[in-house]
Design a protein that fits this description.
Length: 271
């Protein structure tokens, strides 16, 4: 009772950057179960398992009078074979399961994919980092070379093949999401910068400067982007990119009150 009262009076963990709270002091919003999933990168079968599992969990949430909110942490496309199917599957979720709140953050791969559509010459890296697999999933041949003319041919074919609803879905994705003591973002945050002054580039691309030193950002940061062998569950950050595209599990987490449960969906295809 005392702990409930304490939480009621002071519902959020400390905002002092020098003080990292204990895990049990970090709370999901009241009466809401949060779910988050790391980088999917075109792995439709693991995504489907994750969705089936969430839908079951959400029934439990409902009977316990909790709302269910699911945050996908970005990087839906590239590297894996089924980027198109992954985007298709994700964008339908709010219609199929309206009882669940669905949030789809933009990862750096979603940014670069859209960059290729506007200025392919400036986004050649996309082709090296899995963009050719995404083009193939839309039935588009990769550029024959990096010559401007070949790039424009591939870009135009991609623009024709990409359904307007997919483009609108990509353009609608927020960069970050706040819920209780948790901040969801694709890559991480820059230490020493207030939450409302973090740059979009850092939130979608940062690695070492965020990961190397424990730092309390005023929220526990739930992120993907940098592959780790296991989900990393620390008081100040939760890293969920376990490299699903390379035959490893797709990782997620379930956050309710001050409890944390790791979710794991193994690769089913031969690798
Ligand atoms: Mn990624």
């Amino acid at each position: 009772m005392l702990s409930f009262l304490k939480r009621f009076l002071s519902p959020s963990a400390s905002a002092d950057p020098a003080t990292i709270p204990e895990s049990h002091q970090v709370y999901a919003p009241r009466k809401t179960t949060l779910y988050a999933f790391g980088d999917i990168h075109g792995q439709i079968r693991q995504l489907q398992q994750a969705i089936d599992s969430i839908v079951k969990y959400a029934e439990d949430d409902r009977s316990a009078h909790y709302r269910s909110k699911v945050v996908f942490l970005g990087d839906y496309v590239d590297r894996g074979e089924d980027s198109r199917a992954v985007l298709d599957g994700l964008m339908r979720l709010p219609t199929i399961h309206p009882q669940i709140d669905w949030i789809f953050l933009a990862g750096n791969h979603e940014v670069v994919m859209q960059g290729f559509l506007t200025a392919p010459q400036d986004h050649l890296l996309w082709l090296e980092y899995g963009g050719c697999e995404t083009l193939a999933s839309y039935g588009v041949a990769p550029p024959a070379s990096n010559a401007h003319r070949d790039l424009m041919v591939a870009r135009d074919a991609f623009a024709r093949a990409l359904p307007p609803a997919h483009l609108a879905f990509l353009q609608s994705m927020p960069i970050r999401h706040l819920a209780g003591d948790y901040l969801f973002v694709h890559a991480g945050l820059r230490p020493g910068i207030p939450l409302d002054r973090q740059s979009q580039e850092d939130m979608q691309w940062i690695r070492g400067d965020f990961l190397e030193q424990p730092y309390w950002h005023g929220k526990c940061v739930v992120h993907g982007h940098t592959i780790e062998a296991q989900p990393t569950v620390l008081p100040w950050r939760i890293g969920l990119d376990t490299g699903a595209y390379s035959g490893s599990p797709l990782s997620g987490i379930r956050l309710r009150d001050n409890q944390r449960e790791v979710l794991s969906f193994p690769c089913l295809r031969p690798f």
